[in-house]
Amino acid sequence: MKEQDYMKIMNGLREDYISEAVSWDGTAQKNRRAIRRMTYGLGAIAAAIAVVIGTIGYSSYRDHLAADSESNPDIAEERLNILGGYGELHGYLTADGRSFFRDNSYFYGEDVKWAIDGSTPLINVEGDSTPLLLTDGKQLYTQHDGNVYVTDSYGGETLAFSLDDTLNCVSRIHKLPNGDYFAIGTTEVDTSVAANAPEDAGSMPHTEGGIASVQAVVYHMATGEHDAIMVMSYADPQQVQYGFLYQINDSLRIFPTITEMQRVMSGYHYQIDDSGDAWYFYDEQNAHGFGRVGFNVRAHNEGNDKVFRVKDFKTEEITGFAVHNDTLWFERLTKANNENGETRTFTEFYTMQLGDSEPSMNYRGDYDMAKNSPETDYPCYSYFGEQYLYGVMQKMTDSGLTFKVMRHAYDAFDGDQTVFEVPVSELYGDQIPDRMERPDMIFGDTGDYLFFTLPEEGINGEKLVQVNLKTGTWFYLGMHCDVVQTPEQNSEMNREDSYEGIYGETLESGYCSPETFPQYYIPAENLDSDRIDCYRMLPFAKASESKLDPAALGAHLPEGGTWSRRDPDAPRMTYEQAFQSITSGGSLVGWQMLEDLCKLSAGYDAEAYLNRSDMTDREFWLDDAGKEFFYVVLYGELGSYQDFDRAEFYFFCYDEAKQQYHYARLPDASAERLSGKQPAGTNFLGGSGTVHPYVTGTGQLLFAEDDLWYYDLGYGQRAPKQNDPAQTVWEALPQEAQNRFFADSAGNRRLMMDGSSFYTQDGGALYRLDNDGTEHYLMMPDEEMAAWNRDTIDVCRLCMMHDDRLFVMINGQTAADDGDCFMAYLVDVKTNIVTVLPDADVSRRELYPYWNEAAVTDEWIYSVSDNGTVLHITGLDGSTAAIDLAKDAGVTLDDGWFVGEDGQLWYGQDADWYHMSLHAADENYLKPQKDADAVPYYYNVPVRGATKVLGAAQPDMNIILCNYNGSGAEVLLDGTKNICDCILGVYCEGGVYHIAAEIRADAQNNPTPQTVVITKDGSSVSAFGILPMPQ
Amino acid sequence: MPAATDAQIISLFHERDQKALSETQQKYGGLCRSIAKNILGSREDAEECLNDALLRLWESIPPAKPKNLAAYLSVTVRNLACNRREASRAAKRGGGELTVALSEIEEVLASPERPDTVLDTKAVSDAINRFLGELQPETRVMFVLRYWGDLTVREIAEKCGVGQSKVKMSLLRTRNDLKAFLEEEGLR
Question: Which is it for strands A660-665 and A542-545: parallel, antiparallel or unpaired?
């Protein structure tokens, strides 16, 4: 199968399956929070469909919020509010009675939110799982489960009233001074039962199956009783509009007195005055009427005892109204002659005491429609009525070619305050809207900010203008437009010069370097440059490598923390302290260095941060603004936190003048060494060139060499290769190498090899070493080691199979300290996949000690158990077999047994050596055969790939190179002169054998052994002796 | 400190707060790195891929408001990784867990006895979707993580809070069932 086909198939998996999988939390599935989350998810989806259903989701959202707050004290402190932001919510009403809110950072509208400081565009939150929140300017309300609740900012609710069957959804709500609630919303009515309906009622729009969604007003008394009226209108085929006023009780009935009220929709509005009284306004063919919605007062028309008419008056083109202290305020457009006798359209504001007979005009606006519009009867450029906020009228005009918004206090008739003014062309170019009037245009006023929607979307997507009433600055907002403009910038502002324009393309085409700054951008054009420029994510300030001396700057590091400080009152450590910790702290593994750094500060709870498994970088801010910070990036293989074994350290400093960051990496030598690497050209033992391990039969690492040195790794010493052999003496390894490989307080070996590669274990983890000291974490069977005390783990045996599967044998103690643990596994060094090998049919304690002496070939792992009477064979695929060795009584396996490349198992000691074929199908053939001609071996070092065995034969203690069966033996060192005590290992490359051994020239009088390295190149044999280290 | 909720992270994106990136990386970086690394076979490429994905998030949120941030990010990462893998294939790169996963399921998805058959990937995808719909959620999750996310058995075990053996057994059975299902559907 082609890989592309496979990917295509898997790319076709359903999105919900993928969402389910990637969001799966196995642990959470085990507790009830999972139920809560699923409910939340369902609610969130439903919220996008219908408010009523969405309110179900809100219950869960609230639970979710509470759960987060309970489990997360930090969040609780930050007080996540029910709209998903932070801080107390404050509710306001727009001029047309819609609710909007603000918290510490955001304004929230019905389906949109935006940052108060203009740093975000309009953000569509439609379908979000946040609640449908309402306000009357004083309290916050939510509605769900068929009830309306008073809520605080964080979801604490008390029941206000039950919706019962009166409304499906409340859109406006007011608590009246007497404790009653006045609510406006929508409900459904069955128009088929509407009596007195016109004959063509069947043409009612928005009606399906006789059910129509209609506007309704409900009066809920504090006693729990309620009354409601509903208003519905429709247009008949002759486009004559009708309106109906219904009353809710047991059945619907029509109030016929207003059934033919024309233009009712355009003029039927409700207002709440300062005292909380509800008023309605209607237009009956320009015979306007105002009435109070009293519910329990006299009827203004027969049959309707819920609404009474207060005043009727005749006027034209009224566009809105407000009621304040029993005074009606309204606006109309009129045509009149100006001082030059020219006919103009003016905006006039009227006031009228509700008891007066006629209204009186108090103010005439200055809009000259005839001059500025091709249509002398251009209908309406200004708003009053619904654009009435807290005693202030908001007026929008098109004066000349200027788009203007003015504020005008209703009781101050002598002047406007212009709060916004721009040339129309700036917003609309040549495409000036035919009508700037927009029914859904919104004004909002919080006292410090005014915002309003534009009559038409601007040419750049501007939809909303927000004005800071204190400073006079303003900016546009749009869904895809986050351009910040102020009056000062207005004329010069070019969209290409915006933040987005400056950095957007750069960032998009930039290159994020994972190796240097995972969180930063490096523009592509700088990749090939010696001088790297990168961009910090925010505030998109350029950062350039510079020659900085942080110590000279007197930098202080914060009290722990990452992106922000935890405890502002805590003392800070200095840069020098940090630098000292990094460079001389003793830790050479990345995460440990970072941990040391964090622990430097007293009282810092490092665990809270450092247990994170995938953290790769940290910023330590030196100030609250992030203008100076210390940046640490960790590298390592994927896996646990402890896998991040390398670290690099940078210092960033913001240059105010240049508006860019400078950064400096810690001195290369330090960083290289600290990150686990040796200086260029230096290997991990501090020498030069490739380090070659000398192989031993039991997998121990005792001896190695590189271009300059021989290494006795059993004692942690080295000897120069170039000196006169007679003068060459062992010396201690450099301290760094000593610390790294020989300083395990638990007594575990720190440096190991598998015959060709080096490994190190540290803190219960196993790493493969590059020649430069870079460590590569090798996966361990963590699940099976769950009960282990990781600090006690000792890797006993390593052996590479097929150059990619590493056989690993480990032991340790249980976490409860009640016994030993043993385990053998294979790790694929390419994929890091771990395969735990089976235990076989014997107890671990019997088997695994012997596995310490396991023989490993490319294909099989051989181990003995049960006192050497059973040979277990384990394959790469985990298959096992067992061979009973007890058939030949008296034969036991001992140190030094091995399986040759020819498949022969060799074992024995002294002069008695046996071998048998492990490939034979006939079990009888497995009977060990004593090799009468074999050279007796005492130390056996199988040289893989060369089918040779090196042995030291008693009693002469020669060093012999021979085949497995002893044939072709060649004595390299005559034991009659120099007794071989021990073979330290063999290294064979290019047919050249290097054998390291400990010998004594005079066993009787010179008990101190000397090390000798014998080299056999063809027929040439040479020896290099190294004197013991002086005592 | 507990990880931020998705809503909080998305809010940070909307606030253009760079903590959004660190929080996202902290919360989902491990998963996404695993997906990318197991497709690309290279930690470096995976890291690069994740950072590319974070950049995509930074650029797309706002206005985007993903309902499931983990899915949004992981799909982005996977797409980027697949594209990168495709691009690097010409340079003889590849390997990684994707190859291992493919080797496991290859024989299930396409009959080796019919190598000449043109694979209708769309039909197979649809069939797998139907098949997955019948599975228990946990079983389905393991399958998707393995063969869509290319996670290792160990990574799946960690994510699902179960032992590796259970994962292996579940995957084995699911593969066998899927094989039978595809045969019934005439797709192999």
Answer: parallel
